[in-house]
## 1
Amino acid sequence: MSIVNTREKTINTKIVYYGPGLGGKTTSLKHIHTVLDPEGQVKMVSLKTDEERTLFFDFVPIDLGMLGGYKIKIQGFTVPGQVKYNLTRKYVLMGADAVVFVADSSAARLDENIQSLDNLGENLEANGLDVNEIPLVLQYNKRDLDDAATIELLDERLNFRKLQCFPTNAHEGAGVFEAFISASEQMIRAVARKYQLETPDGDIGALTRQHLERFLVA
């Protein structure tokens, strides 16, 4: 859950990257970290399970600085893709303010994407959150695969809220930061609405987008 301190003018929020195993969640968060912190001044934390190459979760703190009179910070998390770590998924989702669902575009993994999206809804509900209400972005990753399903098919099976989707290739970074911008804009706007925050410079969600878009041309 977002933490807003109107006296100190701070907003602390949480974005969770969700999706099937090896779909590109970690690679996406690493790319965002690299774009925002190219010198690596803030370290990305990765906790691994006892199985080689299996990530328990990743975490990176993101400081957006002052926007609309508020100092904004975002905590970026990934969840483990394997089903047996569902309790960890549920725990990481606790207090989430936005979700980026990273789907694997491979046609062979369509059912896994659907199962993971259903699991997201279940775990959000377990945390008192609603998959139909929370700011949600769909990231269709691995668009370079030979067997990539069409955007139309992925939308038909996954995009139940008729949201904007982002075709991505996380290994190259293509489209990943744009998806993050969309999630951040929606999230900050929702937080401002929830807490009835008044900002002198207008829509704080739009200010968040404008600030982050500068990194695309840096």
Note: The mean pLDDT is 93.
## 2
Amino acid sequence: MHEFITKRTDISYETLLVDKTPRNWAKKAVESVSDLLIDHAHCERKAAQSAMTLIYRYPHLHFVNELSRLIREEMVHFEQVLRFLKLYNIKFRSLKPSGYGQFLASLVNIDNQYLINHLIINGIIEARSCERMGAFSEFVNPELSTFYKKLHDAERRHCSMYIDFAQSLSKDSIDWRIKEFAIKESEWLSQSSRLIRFHSPHG
């Protein structure tokens, strides 16, 4: 597979997402901080797993080394969240997922551009993670706030990386494809749900 455009300087989580999460989501999230921390640990694990899947399926990709570094960073974040769970005496356990990841994964096979779609979806997930971690950091204790502000910056970088990867595999602009997935992501999040997760609906 050829490498085309190698860098997008116009992509950030703000430009990627169609809508912003209401502040009310963060206020509710703080009321369920134990579940949010557990869910966050699972999110980091899944993020590493998704990148590992890309390496397994496409070992020839020119950005495999970057994916490997991203995996290590995600697992460091996973371990950091586990330390907070231990600090707050919260048991790490299985948790009912919001369905967000499953929904977005279902869009990957929408056409024959599976790899590019997968990368864009990962970028959108990182963008939403970035946005919500920033919102969450405004309502938690100072220790957690500092932690989530640092993660906010990491998620922003991961978002840009995935979009760069996707664009590098296409000779044409992928903006329309990004927009299509971002709209679907926004529509899914607009539904009502009593479940509070990092990627739960905010309708």
Note: Residues 142-168 form the longest helix (27 residues).
## 3
Amino acid sequence: MPAIGFEPATRAEWAALAEEALDGRTADSLSTTTRDGIELPPVYGPDHLVGRVDPSGMPGSSPHTRGATSTGPVDGAWDVRALVADAGPQAANATALDELARGSTSLLVDPTAIGLADAGDLAEVLDNVHLEMAGVWLVPGPKADGPARWLLDLWDRRGVAAPDRRGGLGLDPLGVAARHGTPQKFSSDLAVLAAAVADTPGVRAVTVDATPYAEAGASEAWELACSLATGVAYLRSLTDAGLGLDDALGALAFTYSADTDQFATISKLRAARRLWDRVAEACGAPPDQRAQVQHALTSAAVLARTDPWGNLLRNTVAAFSAGIGGARAITVRPFDSAIGRPDEFGRRTARNTQLLLTEEAGVARVVDPAGGSWYVEDLTDRLAEAAWERFRSLEADGGMAVALASGRIAAEVDAAWEVREARRASGHEPLIGVSIHPDLDQVPLERPAG
């Protein structure tokens, strides 16, 4: 919109003025390039979208770039999902009850970290938790079928009606293989458990967890591509086992990392929904079955052991970006989790970071607030394009399982990690309090080993 009383300025005029201050450099020298090779110019304008049909659509409508639902989060808040990973069922239960009493709305329970041995252990973790009110999502891990069956049995024994059940069973053999470096076979349990919750719309049997790739160094486009290839592998497995496409799509939930690169995180989450819509469309799904159930987890890779107080700010940026990006649920890692097992203060600040964003700042009260930004729309487009090409390459080579087994994913991620480390060492990606401006007199923060 032109400013009244002012002549509109052209990009050429801006560039000429900018170059006067650049001491002989051109305005183009202000451009930067992402790890995916996407060039980011210093100034964006409507010309960046000239000739393109608006791909974003409307919230709640295909291609779901602007949100999976038309109304956004219920009551102006996304699902505040607390991580429960204390050693032992008794300690985990205390954390779960404290989180729910103080503002968290669902639980992300890590059976491996807690050391769950049987159904009784899970029942102890969730003792006095109102399962008809709070969702329970299991973190994927080795032998995930055990905790998945224990959770289903617990819902039955507690008399929780199917419409009131909310959560995820945490089946993700490919993600577990990527994180732990050990092959995981697709068992019949994947389809059996997916079929068991087919009539329970609030429960997802399978989690497509993309965070192992991001935390190992993968770029945004590679994180997206790996999630797509993993999701497609699960769709094939489920439909080959006899599930209908609607039930197979309804069995999947996705987890992505959120970090301190604010606009990259926002655009990545928007691109993820658009890309999954495209996959579902190619499979023959109608528009109302293409929305992605999306959870964002703040990245462990950006948390520092040195001067960990800076992690409070890093978590705030990551959570804000995930909320603006449209994640339905967000988990903030406690700032001290990089050191060891978080204490009550670490958990409280993680929880209150989200509550401040939703209840004080009102971040969730507007659906897709970044939509229409020339920068965000252009970056969303380019990330989607880059991720789609990488996804097609993975599929052409045999799919995600083959890419993991052959070492291709590890090679891609290792190369990306080396680039990131080099940029940090050179100061191009600084860590405040670590690589620059360290507090050399700070007393180290101590936590029990995790």
Note: The CA atoms of residues 354 and 360 lie 10 Å apart.
